[in-house]
Amino acid sequence: MDVKLLTYLFVGLSFALYIGIAIWSRAASTREFYVAGGHVHPIANGMATAADWMSAASFISMAGIIAFMGYDGTVYLMGWTGGYVVLALLLAPYLRKFGEFTVPDFIGSRYYGNTARVVAVICLIVVSFTYVAGQMRGVGIVFSQFLDVDITLGVVIGMAVVFMYAVLGGMKGITYTQVAQYCVLIFAYLVPAIFISMLITGVPIPQFGLGAAVADGSGVPVLQRLDDTLAELGFSPYTEGAKSTIDVFAITMALMIGTAGLPHVIVRFFTVPKVSDARKSAGYALLFIALLYTTAPAVGAFARLNFIDTVHDNAYSDTAPWFRSWENIGLIGWLDKNGDGAIQYAPGAPFEGAPSFATERGPQGERLVVNPATDSANEVYVDRDIMVLANPEIAALPPWVIALVAAGGLAAALSTAAGLLLVISTSVSHDLIKKTLARGISDRQELLYARIAAALAIGVAGYLGINPPGFVAQVVAFAFGLAAASLFPAILMGIFSLRMNREGAVSGMLVGLGFTFAYIVYFKFVAPELNTAEHWWFGISPEGIGTLGAAANFATAFAVSAFTRPVPAEVQALVHRIRVPRGVETPHAH
Amino acid sequence: MVRESGEVVRDEHSGISERNRAYWRANLKLGTVLLTIWFVVSFGFGILLVEPLNRIPFFGFKLGFWWAQQGAIYVFIVLIFVYAWAMKRLDRKYDVHD
Q1: Which residue segment(s) compose the domain that A308 sits in?
Q2: Are both A208 and A244 inside the same structural domain?
Q3: Which residues does chain A have within 8 Å of residue B31's beta carbon, measured at their own beta carbons?
Q4: A85 → closest Cβ in B50, B76, B97
Q5: Does residue B98 form part of some domain?
Q6: Is there a contact between B77 and A286 if contact means CB atoms under 8 Å apart?
Q7: Which of A93, A135, A218, A337 has the most CB atoms in a 10 Å sphere around its CB?
């Protein structure tokens, strides 16, 4: 069977599975819709959390980013896993004990009032919509690349599938589809990784293959070979970074505490029966995530080596078919600057911006790039995102592996989109409508509002996926920075400080959010030409500024709370209560 | 979460008992130890000390690079399971288990 037919088959079968699960697990009450009734097994919740967390960015982009950043890719590897330690030790068990439905619920109750609740809802909606637009775009790209479907139609199909299980099943439907999606995506990630590790090193386990010798009889380890090869081409070594130590530190910290403060991750821990289950479940979640995250650096290094071997100093007419197929959709571009007919790979951009192509082709059949050339020796443009998607082709793997990768990419994007859409709709129906605007509504009415909000959110997400604002990729840094600087400190102080009052927490959130937002907007949009290390505060890039934002949040909160009214006794009692596991209750239907 | 006055009073009473205070102190101690390890393996070995550690070869890796892209993640997993196990013991010891 050819690749396209197999891809249709794999994607079709996986979609049928997700929809089947949606019908089987319809939610009948708000408790089922919001927290899957509160009786998800910790291991199932671990898988669901892993799928929820690992998005199109983790599945498609991360290994490619690492391939080109080398050591600096560490910020993503540690930042997006280390956050689970913070979550498990400092937040998840206590929020589970608190026993309500949403993150704004906790902030509203702990800081006694709707001001705190509404500020939390705003943070949540900004963070979650930023994310979800990217996921829908990922769905569109996979569809258009592997199935020859128009991006718009791809996004609409994706929306329809998410609609089925998110609107019908709520958290219950999402949980069990995410378990299935985790299995699909991890299988789809590991199979090509194992094949490629075998191919390059002869070692089947990629985590060990990364340290093994290249299988050409030379006995040189992979990373050594990569460092040497890159040095020959004029790059800095793969195993050493280009970013400053303080920036790597700040970005890693912002990603870690941002992860711990992301609402769609936190709510997953509301679905397990007990406090002790929430702790264990975080361990399983990280275990399942680490399967992909420890494989990604191996995939990245192998991909870079493979890429250089197949591309550098080879004539265009001798390149592998994958080079031409990705050139055809504009994610690879070659400009023969020195006119020798061969492709040279070197540091620096080959030409300005992403490639624009002339209608006619060059002497070897290549697409002619019309962008103005730079004076670097580099002649080849490559979009980092193609590394994982192109890997099976680069390694000449069988067609079913390529089809599997398509299904895996869709599973990663859809599972994250569904989790995000759920927290958006929940915060609208529960925190804004039920707890703020229309207090008297019944459980059935609230459930209806939740479904309407989910449907609307899917519509907005789909619109953003089809018409992405030009800055989607850039705003992703926002989501983590904002979560780190606003929600994370407020939740943490709410659990660990008996003295933190409403005035302190609200002013802390506003200062953290405002500072981080202003810094990112200034360097990304107002004065992008100044976005270099010498202009940054303390040498911290906008990606890492959430760390300073969080520090500003803590400092403001403690200063303000020292001079304002103390915490009421019943709120102190609430804090004492969430600190002990005994007496956990499943959130009851309101 | 103040639902009915009876529940709050009961909880307030148990919330400030000596047993719960001791439990909380033990919890904080455990958390501090584990988070120190978390910080040392990631920010310490993987970032601040990466250059000196990179001079040490480790199964085909430079040691600092290995901590940054592999080792720290393995330790993270172990830390969470150790925490879950140790907390379960504390829960029972102080009779606050769920």
Answers
A1: 304-394
A2: yes
A3: 89-90
A4: B76
A5: no
A6: yes
A7: A93
